[in-house]
Amino acid sequence: MPLDCIDELEKKIDALLSSLKQARSENKDIMGRIQALEKENGELKDELEAVKNDSSESRNQLKSAAEKIKSLISRLEAIE
């Protein structure tokens, strides 16, 4: 009977070790995915910042063009 207990204990320990190995493997996979997502997140933030800068620059160019057009219209109205 004592050997039966030891055999059962050995089986439980083997099951626990197997579960631990699987958990570590899953953890490694998850950590890899987290690192990839963090990298992608950083790249997207950089891209968003670049788009914001381009948008701001475009807005300033449109504002400048609108002012020039208004000036030209004023000059044309003065001719009439």
* Structural class by SSE content: mainly alpha
Strand-and-helix sequence, N→C?
Answer: H
Number of strands: 0
Helix content: over 70%
Residues in β-strands, percent: under 5%
Euclidean distance between termini CA atoms: 116 Å
Instruction: Round the mean pLDDT to the nearest integer and report it.
Output: 94
Shape: rod-shaped
Give the secondary structure arrangement, pairings included.
Blueprint: H1 2-79
Q: Nutshell version of this structure?
A:
With 80 residues, this protein is mainly α. The protein has one helix at 2-79.
Describe this structure in words.
- With 80 residues, the protein is mainly alpha-helical.
- Helix content is 98%, strand content 0%.
- It has one helix at 2-79.
- The longest helix has 78 residues, at 2-79.
- The termini are far apart.
